[in-house]
Amino acid sequence: MGSGPAPIATEALARITQLYHIESEIRGRAADERRVIRQERSRPVINALEPWLGEQLTLISQKTKLAEAIGYALSSWTGLTRFLGRVEIDSNVVERAIRRKNALFAGSDGGAAHWATIASLIESCKLNGIEPHAYLSDVITRIVVAQDRGLRTAHTTHRRSRHDNRSRRMHKLLRKHRLRFRQNMKCSRLRCAAGIPRLPSQGHDETAI
After folding, report:
1. Domain boundaries, position 202
2. I need a labelling partner for 165 at 20 to 30 A (CA). Which of 51, 57, 102, 149 fits?
3. Number of domains in the chain
């Protein structure tokens, strides 16, 4: 096989087509059964495809679209091979279902993106036999509860930190006063031992804390 872009792209598509043939054979079977077959038949194809793509990348100009596509595939390999578990190899089924909906009046790019997210969740629920409203209500409730719990935890941690800081300052102040008290007592004993009379009070007790 040549080293130009066309032969490489043709070979890559042929290998990917093998994966889609396997998917078409197992579509509709139980999830566990699909996963077992993917591990037996699809994983060897995937394991051979990754190093092959890396090798082909060294044979072509890095400025070509093919090199860009191969680089993207290799950098996203974990996501691209996630179908070897329970998920579909692509989102074509959901996208076809969404395409039938009227999204012409989303209002803005941001609105269209949000609509696509919700539509994807709803159609995925339908494909998996899950009632969409119940699923979305449960997920949103969990998010709100988790956020509320996180805020309470952060507030408690902040209050505890402030309390610990006050305790440390109080402990430091008490230690300073105890040291001063001991020094004053030591000076008083030395004066008494030397027969030096006690100095008159300057408006406060010398031994006071």
Report:
1. 147-209
2. 149
3. 2
Amino acid occupying residue 157: T
SS3 content of the chain, % helix, strand, coil (to 5): 75, 0, 25
Is the pLDDT at 162 greater than 50, yes or no?
yes
| Domain-located, residue 103 | no
Nearest to 88 by CA among 171, 6, 27: 27
Express each pLDDT in 71-127 by its tens digit. Answer: 999 999 998 898 898 788 887 777 776 765 555 666 777 887 888 888 888 888 887
The answer to whether residue 119 sits within a structural domain is: no
Domain boundary among 90, 105, 129: 90
H helix intervals, 38-131:
43-57, 65-75, 77-80, 92-99, 109-127
Helix (H) or strand (E) holding 195: none
